[in-house]
Amino acid sequence: MTRVVSLFLPSWSTDRLRRKAGDAAHPAEAPLVLIGRDGNRRVVLAADAAAQGAGLRAGMPVTKAQVLVPGLIVQDADPDGDAEALDRLAAWLLRYAPIVAPDPPDGIIIDSTGADHLHGGEGAMLKGLIGRLAMSGLTARAAIADTWGAAHALARYAARPTRIAPPGHGRSILDPLPLTALRIAPSTVEGLRTLGFQCIGDLLAQPRAPLTLRFGPEIDRRIDHALGDLAEPIEPVRPSELVQVRRAFAEPIGTAETIARYIGKLVVQLCALLEERGLGARRLDLLCHRVDNRAQAVRVGMATPVRDVRRLTRLLCDKIETISPGFGIEVMTLRASDAEPLERKQAVSSLVEEAAPDVSDLIDTLMNRVGERAIYRLAPVASDVPERSVCRIPAMAADTGTSWPGHWPRPSRLLTQPEPVETVALLPDHPPVSFTWRGVHRRVKRADGPERVFGEWWKRDAELAAVRDYFRVEDEAGERYWLYRAGDGEDATTGSHHWFLHGVFG
């Protein structure tokens, strides 16, 4: 089933202006409006959040806005610059899905079908998207639904800041939304309100013929777009630097065997272009344009730059079952949406050095089945605090150059969060005699410690005096655990003196 993300940028023009100005930008709390001309009048075309909070709106005369808000910052609008920047943003968002297009004047549309699992699911994908834009100074709301029209409406009128409509949602999610959510002309909206229509549900409950006779076919078309009864193709952005190949068919194709055969041919052509430019693909997008004007997209990612024909063909062919050819595919496009430099490597002679096993092919296969975030390895971090001394890095990432300390053993399983336990122990330096964890009472047979870990005072003032005393303990069943006491056992300012279990030894 098709899934579409609509990204709404409510303050796109003003956010872009502030981001462009950098350190010289006016403070966010200073009301800012962008102005232009409507005939002979100078009117507000865009207002930031501070200006809107002061009661300013698009379409308001500039003189009235300046009277209402003394000290208002007024600058000329740049619609052409906004449109060009929106195209660049859409090209940047190709990292999220193969089909991305600008939705002027303040939105982006993304066909995320089959790509959300690479980002941890739909919820994680939207959260990451909003977060990245926020770090870039862009306010955004996003929604995902089965159609462009439904996602567009939810992003603008129901997302706080995200909204995920369940697959196969139907008309129920549209009923409470205002008429303007259908993307119909303002004059048509006013005419409908005059007749007593207030929300989309009011329209859907009425016969369409009288509405079409009075207002024309626009209402009927937009309703069909939102409900998925009429296709609304997304024309994806095409950055000029993309490496891509294309194949058009005299007769539409549809069988899995034929699709696989032409995938192999396209991969050969693409790898030849990559070799000419000294590049390897980190991400491939296969776009299948059907005869019904819909597009099916397949995305595969690689942990390292690759231009091996057999590997890339196999990864793409593994996704053929996700392609729905409908009445046939008439055009196939294969592009390297992410490519990095890749040099030829001379084979190492076994007489000189034994080559290290290459597991990148296995990593690529697993990554495209369960998602990139699910495949990782652990790397040490320079920190004495156990939960901060480890981080996740990509499976094929280079070594960080940091190693774990070897003077004290560490458990093979470190809990995500230390869990409180009930203990019997003699303060200040003795290990527990017994402890109760998850409802099970355990008697300690032998123990080693304490290992004192001090707080990282340079990160937080609260850790200035904080300490932990860690003990390795073994119960009567031979199970070994890693316990610590919060505090030094004497001074209350060093910790609560409660006990916690932090890890389990294998």
UniProtKB/TrEMBL annotation:
EC number, as in UniProt: 2.7.7.7
InterPro entries: DNA/RNA_pol_sf, DNA_pol_Y-fam_little_finger, DUF6504, Rev_trsase/Diguanyl_cyclase, SulA_CellDiv_inhibitor, UmuC
Key word Signal present: no
Any Gene Ontology biological process: DNA repair
Pfam families linked to this entry: DUF6504, IMS, IMS_C
Catalytic activity of the protein: DNA(n) + a 2'-deoxyribonucleoside 5'-triphosphate = DNA(n+1) + diphosphate
TM region positions: none
MF annotations from Gene Ontology: damaged DNA binding; transferase activity
Record-annotated UmuC domain positions: 31-158
Keyword terms: DNA damage, Transferase
CDD domains in UniProt: PolY_like (cd03468)
Function recorded in the entry: Poorly processive, error-prone DNA polymerase involved in untargeted mutagenesis. Copies undamaged DNA at stalled replication forks, which arise in vivo from mismatched or misaligned primer ends. These misaligned primers can be extended by PolIV. Exhibits no 3'-5' exonuclease (proofreading) activity. May be involved in translesional synthesis, in conjunction with the beta clamp from PolIII.
Assembly notes: Monomer.
Family from the record: Belongs to the DNA polymerase type-Y family.
Protein known as: DNA-directed DNA polymerase
Taxonomic path: Bacteria, Pseudomonadati, Pseudomonadota, Alphaproteobacteria, Sphingomonadales
